[in-house]
Amino acid sequence: MPCEGTRPKISFHGAGRPRYAQSHPAIAMAEIYIRRRHERRGCRRPSLLAVISAIAAAVILVALIRRKPAPEKPAVAPPPAAPSAPMLAERPAAEARRATSRRGQEILRGFDQLQDLVRRGKLLEARESAYRLLDGCRDPELQKRIEDLLGELNIRLVFSPAPMPEKVDYTVKPGDSLAKIARRFDTTVELLQKINGITGSLIRVNDRLRVLRGTFRVTVNITDNSLTLFLNGRFFKRYRVGTGQYMTTPTGEFRITERLMHPVWWRPDGRKIPYGDPENILGTHWLSLDIPGYGLHGTWDPQSVGMHSSQGCIRLTNADIEELYALLPVGTEVEISD
Asked: Contact at 8 Å (CB) between 241 and 313?
């Protein structure tokens, strides 16, 4: 049976051999096998299918011969990884952060409740709630928000007849005057007037007055230009202030020695500048310290508050110095630090 016909002719001799027949000895052996098989059948040219089958079988055979099974090693479980030192150190810190976050959320909820109390007019309850929040707050930004609200609450409560733990009722006796009552309770006439809605100085025997009983103390920080007011050792309100250029504000512990409304300013050259003169830099009120030439005062330039802008005094807006003027009697302690 002839093996020619239309099948492709494949040469097994010389340069005419296919490239795959020259690439591996096993393939050469397959070629010899095919050629001899077909010679026995009387056919000189093998079919392409036979060649491919023989080559595939040879390749598989060679692969099986070359494959050497790797020696098996006894399975040893890897030792458990010990936690690293940083992880051991971070675990308590992470728990602390979560606790801080939970506390922060509680304070935020408390602050919302605090604002709701203010809207409903429950100022005294809101004040005590604000103090509790402030005691537990460690976030500077939230702390400032609580202090700002607490300062407003304290001013509204103090400057009104509203009851406060620091207030007492007093019945006017014969011979009393606002000045005498103020000295008796170590307060100011202006505060008595604001609390009781008195516009003048007239009071009558058996009138009942509400009086603030407590001690104010002032601290001034030159570095951040702030003044903090305390009542009976408790935060009352914080104010922005201007202090001396080139850190010229004196530091130490002082006392208020004089209180003046509409103060006159004496220039460094000794010239007197009356109140109302555009050159008078003291604003509407003056609280003198027991160090000559220095004190707390207002200003006609509110933009200068919050900066190192004065000649050494403590400068506030006119509205703020008016509050302090009403609150602080002669003898109030003032501590200035840098």
From this structure: no
